[in-house]
Fold each of these.
Amino acid sequence: MRLSGRGVRCVRGGREVFSGLDFDASAGEALAVTGSNGSGKTSLLRLIAGLLTISGGSIGLEGGEAELTLPEQAHYLGHRDALKPALSVMENLAFWRDFLGGEASDVGTSLATVGLDHAVHLPAAYLSAGQRRRLSIARLLAVRRPVWLLDEPTNALDAAGQSMFAALMGDHLARGGLIVAATHAPLGITARELRIGGPA
Amino acid sequence: MNALAALIRRDIRIALRVGGGALIGVLFFLTVVVLMPFAVGPDLALLTRLGPAILWLGALLASLLTLDRLFMADHDDGSLDLIVMSQTPLELACATKALAHWLAAGLPLVLATPVLGLLLNLDALATSAVALTLLAGTPALTFTGMIGAALAVTLHRGGLLLAVLVLPLSIPVLIFGVAASQAAITGLSFGAPFSILCALSLISFVIGPFAAAASLRHGLD
């Protein structure tokens, strides 16, 4: 499996964010997207996720499931955590597992892995920022998808949470997964750097 | 199918919990209809004549009131991104969300109608005629309103715009809904306006999801 972009160009609100961007990542590889604020890290992830329309060049996934598109094989972990405050931790995760479908694993195990098993029936409204992030990460575990697109994944996580997530990313890569992460902080795994917008 | 069932369960659950807003519509409906006899005065004949129109107006405004949250909440917390990325076609997801919204916010209006009919001096026949037309017509209000709700997401802070966009689209539904109820009460042909009302609902089932999905896709950023 290989994710590649050729001459990718991104235009937001009439302004060119970046152009002529080439990148490659094969199975088991992580790509750390770096760059100053506003350089287009999030935009690149959203382009790969199919949430923005590409203005030039191409992005493709070779060797994935033939009948699925790239966004359907990707998990997107953005700034906004897609959690409903009125629903409990368990209900939030169970919904995404049922809705995203595919090869799903047990909700309880995923929650235990991210250290939220004590708060299963708590409404998500009462979670702290770090706990919300852990719950979003549990979504990546509850439904298996080969490509992880992570936007500042370690934000709000404590030291234990960061090392837990680094281990999870390591597992994902070992199973032939692929990670593209926009980040300022070190991820804790070996990742190739993809710099947008020249030296800061 | 599993995905759609999960979506409908989630949306209804959120709507019925505290702060979900499903009951705001019914409460608003109740307020409008209860206040009307005080405004019109104790003329029973007049109230009977106005009854179906008042109930329909109340239901129309009540369904508009809760509609702007249909996609806005999912957009604000990022759920919409994941829904767009999923294998479920966006059109089907939109239709499912609208159905869930109707079940949580539209159906209670229909169920409240018999009680409110008493306040407007409507007899059993008239009340059931209004309830039946509301049952056939409120889905059309939700499914056309969905187009406005999707546009409101893409044009930030478009809540006010929603009313301006959706009201003209709901005028035909209002006209034939009231016409059918009046026809049933006065003994005129009920079939013709009621058929047109059902047709309007069916058209909105087809156009609404496609228009809303197109609008959401176009407006992602």
Amino acid sequence: MKELLRDKGFLAAMVVSFLGFAMGFPFYQVEFPLGSGSFIQFYQASLESQVMLFLIPIAAVLPPGGSYVRESASGFLKLYLSRVSRMDYIRAKTCLVYAGGFLPFFLAGTLSFLFCFFFLYPLELKGAVSWEEARGAVETLLRISFIGGIIAEFSGIFAAVFRNYYMAYGLPFVVYYMMVILKERYFPKMYVMYPGEWVLCKESWGTGNAGIWVFFLVVSLAVMLSHSLILYWRLQEV
Amino acid sequence: MGAVKQVAAAVRWNFLGFYKNPRVVASFMFSFILCFFLSERAMMVADYYDSSMQALEPFIWTFGDATAILLCSLLLILLFLDLPKLSPFTPYMLLRMKKSRWLLAQFFYIFLVTVLYMLYVVLATSILCMQKTYAGNIWSKTAALLAYSNMGKDLSIPSTVKVMESTSPLSCSMQITALLICYALSLSFLMLFFQMKLGKKAAVGAGLFYSLFGFLLNPDVLAKILRKEEYEMFLMRRVAGWLSPLNHATYGMHDFGYDVLPSIGQSCMVFLALLLLLLSLSFYTLKKYNFNSFTGD
């Protein structure tokens, strides 16, 4: 984890996601005096903005994207594998890549929430804050973070398969937008594979939208497993 | 005949591994995504009028705009990062052929890749909008509605009555493709020249500067800088239309009988002159070019 937090790519991803939240913030809607709980509504709007949707696949691949390519090309991997077992390396790498996609959004989102709270809440009229809205905002942030984690795993998979930076950083973006294109241009009813729907969660996902969390869990496990298997196959060559 | 064979062999060598090169694959994939973003406007128009389009109309409406041309051609910088193509095989090739023939092969390679890229863009745009298009070579109802409304002008879509009366969608798209290819070739040749003269970073810088030059030489930007009034805009359009390579590549910035702007043929001639100039400069630079790196990618 220390390795991830010190990574420049991780900081860059955090900055990009924070900028995404800031650019998506509906400043033009801010009119004083603010109604009670407005800061949550503004925060929710910034989470659901188009800018954020565009930046997710860019920020998600920054921390872990090329780490395998870098380690493999520089010869570090050979040296490292003499000190740890292959399974330990695979386990650590898979979790690190997932965390590298998940955490920047989660941390930048939490920071944005604090900004909204400290700057807007004091300007609101006195009244009760809707906990339902707060829960909605937290759930949206978690969904964005999960998408980040899944895309980061895709980046790790492409890095291990192609051992190339262009593929590691570029293909997840292409895959993400292929799903957007399929939904928007060819299959308008195919909302399950639409990243925009993963963030907004407006369609039917079962009772209490529990289906989307199951979906994230299953997809996350599937991509982590695929990544591990590909790494195992690659490490046999080392 | 021997010279042609040698050049063809060098061109074939440049294409070796082209389709497996991750940078090339990534460039073409990014271009597909870019076409999706850019064709959003054409789809919006079709949705607004709730009518179909001719298969090439999305391409005409998308790449009749300077910004779209600029964004599309920027990906060529990524595609041509490795020019001139040097590999461990290059010294052996140079032992058996003249350096000028080798350079000519580089130009043919650029030409073929650019044509391939632009045809891919035409195809990608048509495929992305195929849900709302038909194949016949006649202008659609959407195009007619656009031509008789202000929406086309507001969205910078070159769908005017004059264009529709004078040409068919196929011929119009061919003209736009020709202009796009000319612009892309001038950008790529410029990159090759700077690559040979000053190195890779200078080539990328030259490519970006060329694009920025075209972008800034926009009639609206010029009018703001020179503080011109609305009635003087025709003059700004005329100056920008003749000076900017990007405007030479923009279909809507040509002479349709309203302004003294270049015709499509004149623009092609301007590009041809520019390409010949870059070609001769590159041949001159080749004399002093130091082939010190044969490691390739």
